[in-house]
């Protein structure tokens, strides 16, 4: 009886502490917020693409597979802006590439370009001063999605505001002058662009012009005005000085600084884009994007990105090849894949191997469903963790054979391809907001199919069930192992324990 009384008292005390913390560390309201909208595209300027004007109703796309191309595209587009920049990201690091891009935004604002930067606050650690400085610029505004109540020791905010803070904005887009946009899987940080001591990511973006761009800007406006979004000026405090310049100065003596300057100098993007000679594929594209209200709570299933994507894809006839770094299909996903296989549709999936993953608990959510997927006929491939080469290697549609997979893409029947932020996991389906483009492109779809056909040129294992146990097959080397690559006694125990816990909905 005494134990029950003590437990009840502790629960009441905890509830009181949570309520008190929410009152003391309450977020500011939206009073005084003006939800401006996208500016009309300028009629003149480097990005006033003549080619797009001659192709009404179509979207021009070019994949950005290599980190160098993806970085250069963003910087060069920012430098070419004459009217507006609308950027939306889940993570923005304060490393070399993050500092260079922040400086590019600030320089654009100095030229009179209107800059709107929307960041998920979960990925802004250490950047409060820089955010405050950019937000204070007369031509720039920064807003934060579901900001943390505490600025120091931010993670402690989960203790009293978990359910709100567990919902994040995972979208990634970079739109300039309402004429060109970059959508895909990359956040802003060295590892996403192929440099630095941290694990590098195989990733994929797409540069798009034409019909789809106004849809992306309208979607940005929708997020900009979301109730989950707060003005950065009410959250972060200015510190004085020039923190953006000070942060960039830290990298002046780094050899990589001059390497990236050389990449920008060598890139040939803006001139052919403005002249209409850039190698673009002109086709149809559909924007799929979650309603930002998802950050406030549950959304009807038919309104989720997955519902939109299912309707946009339509009937799958022959094959589905998917790439995702975080693959947690759950019971429903396994059943869906099994249904496709039963209809004669070949399903192949590439994800990170245990040794390549950067999130061990997510791998546990995949590993517990692996045998069931193999039994249903799904072909599974796992990207190997490799030493990063001195020069980029061609990985089919991807431009860089780095150490860890981060691209989120799938191809259907050799006729269309999805490129965006969506992972095949419960978090992407139910908790995070996501976005991407579904593109009618036989060329891009078949490049992804071909990468699977070639077993990723030896850069991935095919996982098979052989004689009652799992086997990892390296077709390039002609080797087979029944010991999971990257496994250890500790890792195996951790995977088993996490697999037992009722946390799949969080992964």
From TrEMBL:
Pfam families: PLDc_2
InterPro entries hit by this protein: PLD-like_dom (IPR025202), PLipase_D/transphosphatidylase (IPR001736)
Coiled-coil residue spans: none
PLD phosphodiesterase domain: residues covered: 165-192, 401-428
Any one GO BP annotation for this protein: cardiolipin biosynthetic process
PROSITE patterns according to UniProt: PLD
GO MF entries: phosphatidyltransferase activity
Protein name, UniProt field: PLD phosphodiesterase domain-containing protein
Species the sequence originates in: Nitrosomonas mobilis
